[in-house]
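User: Here's a chain of 188 residues. Predict its fold as tokens.
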Amino acid sequence: MHCMRRSLLSLAAALALTGATGIAAAADAPQVLLKTSMGDITLELNQEKAPKSVANFLQYMKSGHYNGTIFHRVISNFMIQGGGFDTGMKQKPTNAPIENEAANGLKNEPYTVAMARTSAPNSATAQFFINVRNNAFLNYPGQDGAGYAVFGKVVKGSEVVDKIKDVQTGPGDVPAKPVVIESASIVK
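Assistant: Prediction complete.
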């Protein structure tokens, strides 16, 4: 009887710890501040559902890759894309591509952040985009059977995203006046 009681107490403690860990993990979601030439945007990253995409994004951020890059593709009724080109429209070198995590249950809804990629599903590197509307056609499985991996959301600065989406653009949806990501840093 004493052994059984001790086992039940151990099980209860383990379950309580598991629940507390889950809550702590959600509370500890990293937040990244993007200081742009049009204002600040704070992103909250979802490590639980998109661990590879978040680790990839944080690696680029910590290396300083995003500092001085631009939002090089802006489509007002779709998304704003950045993280790959400097102010002279020169593409920055990247690390190896990562696995597409689009089947993680997160949706391409307004103010969510997703990995940009080519037509090859597992080709995302440094570029990301912020959805400015519900882009359900990008959700897994998407039009190509793979979708686009959401890995975070805007928690502050949605008004800045709205200002960026409305800038004047030229050929290739490139803003006429560069919208610069001056710096990217962890704030939480």
